[in-house]
Design brief:
The protein is an alpha/beta fold. It is built from 9 helices and 9 strands.
Length: 249
């Protein structure tokens, strides 16, 4: 089992605060039969430099290198124009891949500027975006048209497993999984109290409602992302994209 979105790394963002808490999270995941987890600490380009973020991530990864599960370096990068100050976004991607977990700003209504930003990220940086926790964006949960547009661009869509245990979102989340809008699952775990990694509960719900084959497809998708040799086809660079030359830093 693979968790594609976690905040396990200690002392780097609003996830685990200590090495001990981080190890407890990995133990909890291990007991749920999770064998691999992508570590996706927040990177806010308007608040700090990529260099400092990467340095802090390396230190945090070293602090949990004795985990029982295999931890993979990545990031949850906030979509912001400051990203275009950099000539390369590959260091923020999931380790040894071109896949980048992207977080949209909070939104009450969809902003088409996000599509333009995605076009530039795909077209200039040759990045495969993974849209984080689509269940947290009301416009996306309400519009299959928007989800389809994102997928047509080459984006993968990640759902938080908490959406399956929440009565307000469960029905819609299951429908999106059934209709194959959802590509990947993640716990988005931060701690063991109010944001725990309840992957096993989500597995039971999907088994019961949609069948084991559906779960298996989601796990195969995750494996295809984290293993470069079987990585999904890189989206073609869009010919219609107007690329803004990144500002040198």
């Amino acid at each position: 089992m693979i968790d594609m979105h976690t905040h396990i790394l200690p002392g780097i963002d609003d996830g685990a605060t200590t090495q001990e808490e981080a190890i407890m999270l990995t133990e909890y995941l291990h007991r749920q039969q999770v064998t691999q987890a992508v570590c996706t600490p927040h990177f806010y380009p308007m608040e700090g430099t990529m260099e400092n973020f990467l340095l802090n991530r390396t230190k945090a990864m070293e602090a949990v290198n004795h985990s029982k599960i295999h931890l993979i370096a990545g990031s949850e990068t906030y979509l912001h124009r400051y990203l275009f100050h950099y000539t390369d976004l590959k260091p923020l991607c999931i380790e040894n891949t071109n896949y980048l977990l992207l977080e949209f700003p909070d939104m009450k209504a969809w902003n088409m500027e996000y599509m333009k930003d995605l076009d530039e990220i795909i077209g200039y940086y040759n990045i495969n975006p993974i849209i984080a926790h689509i269940d947290r964006y009301r416009p996306l949960m309400r519009s299959k048209k928007l989800l389809k547009e994102l997928k047509q661009k080459g984006c993968l869509l990640q759902l938080n497993v908490s959406a399956l245990s929440n009565s307000a979102t469960k029905r819609r989340a299951l429908k999106l999984i059934e209709e194959e809008y959802v590509d990947l699952l993640g716990s988005d775990c931060h701690n063991l109290s109010y944001r725990p990694p309840n992957i096993k509960e989500a597995q039971k719900i999907i088994f019961h409602k949609l069948g084991e084959d559906t779960w298996d497809k989601l796990m195969i998708n995750a494996k295809n992302v984290i293993e470069p040799k079987t990585m999904m086809e890189t989206p073609k660079i869009l010919e219609s994209v107007t690329v803004i030359e990144p500002i040198k830093v």
